[in-house]
Amino acid sequence: MIRKISITLILLGLLGFFLGRASADKPKEPKTQENAANESDAALDRSYKEPGEVVVIEINGTINPATLDYIRTGLETAENESAEALIIQLDTPGGLLTSTKEIVKLLLNSPVPVVAYVAPKGASATSAGVFITLSANIAAMAPGTSIGAAHPVSIGPGGTEPDKKEKNNKDPLEELTKGNKQARDSETGDETGGSGKSDRDIMGEKVENYASSFIESIAEERGRNVEWAIEAVRHSSSITSTEALKIHVIDLIAPNIPALLEEIDGRAVKLPEGEKIIHTAGASITTHEMSAKQKMINILSTPDIAFLLVSLGSLGLLLEFYNPGLIFPGVAGAVCLLLGFVSFQILPFNYAGIVLLFIGIGLFVAEVYVTSYGLITLGGLISFALGALLLFDTPESDVRVGFDVVIASTLAFGLFFAYVIFYLIKAQKLQPKLGHEGLIGEQGKAVSDVSEHGKVFVHGEYWNAESDELIKKGERIEVTEYMTGFRLKVKKIDG
């Protein structure tokens, strides 16, 4: 039995071997057009990628440490969610150079493609916004927007721009003579080169040179218009979105974010790890909002808010100083001042502005002790306004306290002290109501006949009194003088 089964298995194995050889030796069918089409469709299916996700953050205000942290968390969110790109919707008047530098470093080294989008219509990427826009992988603008004016500004001396025509029309012989003079000055230790430049002028020039080289390196890295980038820093050049596209400052113009996603779909961008093709057509949009902490820092980083906090804090403490025991003005003023000092930790400030502010507040306090009829207060208001204008006037920042805010705050202090001075003068003219002097003019009744001596009842008390005329008991009297020995001089009231 076992022998029969073994022979059967051997025969089945030989049959399978010969059938396999016959199938292998059979010629293959030629590839038909239908088969080729099927294989092409399969290849397209394998290369097709489902629409991904893009993360959008919106910056509408100055560039400050809160903005820096917001962009950093936006990049982290986009990376964690494997987003196709991070879109920075930008509308900024400028901001701090230190924060801008850190943001540019983040964007140039981002593992996620970054799209800077200046929007909506009427928005602008001014000053620090130019650096951010140029450092993105893709730069886009909405119609009716503008970009430029990246020159570091300053209110005081040294804040003026170089005259382009004057610079181009210099005499070479004059330049050579100037160069020899500067060489002699350097040998003698004259750091200003004999030009009479102040330290502020030199610092402003250094900041301008740094900003120019910085933006030049960004434009070179991203392949954008280097000449215009330098012009934007050196001479505050500003252009519209149409001009920016024409001279290759930006890559495209899009009316909204969905249209932007369609336009950039399939574009290749350069990342630190290499080139990447982004797929954004039909991508889902996730808006990344600022955290509560970032919003708080962003508010405190606004120069107008910082100045108002210091102003309101000073006003609250002055109210408490003039009216001890009110409590609320003092507490609210102390809180506002502390928040204002937090702002000074965030924003670069000018020490001259701080000194002028405190001189103004000191003069306000002095008005209580010195009768100047408003002259000291006027000096305080002038000092306060000048301090406000210079408070954030530094080469490291292009943000300032708004002129309208300065005027409004100065008027508020002026009206407050006008009220105080009015009542101080009025109080000096008022008749005393307390003590012996307060009895003069009080009316009462004679409780006995009064001539050289007698008794009267005045202000709830019995007093010895005398009069130049005879006053009979029960008649109405008025106090005219307080005399020594607790005696009053009175006169009769007719009728």
Q: What is the fold-level CATH name, i.e. the topology of the largest domain?
A: 2-enoyl-CoA Hydratase, Chain A, domain 1
Give the distance, in angstroms, between the N- and C-terminal Cα atoms.
Answer: 160 Å
> Could you say which overall geometry the principal axes of the C-alpha atoms support?
elongated
Identify the CATH class of the largest domain: Alpha Beta
Averaged pLDDT: 80
Low-confidence stretches: 21-48, 154-194
> If classified by CATH, what would the architecture of the largest domain be?
Alpha-Beta Complex
E-strand count: 16
Give the proportion of residues in helices. Answer: 40-55%
CA radius of gyration is 42 Å
Strand content: 15-25%
Instruction: Assign the structural class, choosing from mainly alpha, mainly beta, alpha/beta, alpha+beta, or little secondary structure.
Output: alpha/beta
Write a structural description.
This protein is an alpha/beta fold and 495 residues long. Helix content is 51%, strand content 15%. The strands form four sheets. It has a six-stranded parallel beta sheet with strand order 8-5-3-2-1-11, sandwiched between helices. A five-stranded mixed β-barrel has the order 12-13-14-16-15. Strands 4-6-7 form a three-stranded mixed beta sheet. It folds into three domains: 53-161 and 200-291, 2-enoyl-CoA Hydratase, Chain A, domain 1 (Alpha-Beta Complex), CATH 3.90.226; 302-429, no CATH class; 436-492, Nucleic acid-binding proteins (OB fold (Dihydrolipoamide Acetyltransferase, E2P), Beta Barrel), CATH 2.40.50.
